[in-house]
Amino acid sequence: MSRRGSVRLPSFVVLPNCRGYQVHTTYYFKAKVEGDKHTVDYGKQRSFTTEEIALPTLESLSAEPESVGLNMDESQQLTVTATYSDETMTDVTAEASYVSTDPLVATVSEAGLITAVAGGDATVTVSYTEDGITETTTVSVTVGVFDPWSYDFNGNGVIDIQEVLAAANDYFDGGITKEQVLEVLALYFG
Ligand SMILES: [Ca+2]
């Protein structure tokens, strides 16, 4: 998609098809009116010179969310917006490219879907090019490592039944996974 290189014609030129005109070029014409019975030529030659229209150019790129916190195997879709010199904005999520600094921690698809792989930090660099102008932005990704001992609320080195029930509650609220509840339960039986 090219947004540049358009030719501006003077406002008095009304043509069904304005393609084929060169920028910074003078065109000469004679007006002619045709009807059913009459054709009138206007003898005086006129001219106009075309100008180039300064269409908006790509100015910045932003991604939402700016930072992502995920548990293992969770995903987050990014939304990428391009801002132009005339302050208009366009969703370019599908056209942008994505690179993860650490695919062993988090991968990112061509469509901008981040998926957690293992605990740690990664940065996703988002870039988009239009008319030879490239803008980039980054998204920080943190993948949490689950520690079942975090449910040892009283810090006594033992997971008791109240702490197992707290983990079960978090599971039913969607806060942790079934596997993580089982890790807490294993410490209770351990
Ligand atoms: Ca305890």
TrEMBL record:
SMART domains: BID_2. Gene3D superfamilies: 2.60.40.1080. This is BIG2 domain-containing protein. The lineage of its organism: unclassified sequences, metagenomes, ecological metagenomes. Coiled coil: none annotated. Residues 57-138 form the BIG2 domain. It holds the Pfam family Big_2. SUPFAM superfamilies: Invasin/intimin cell-adhesion fragments (SSF49373).
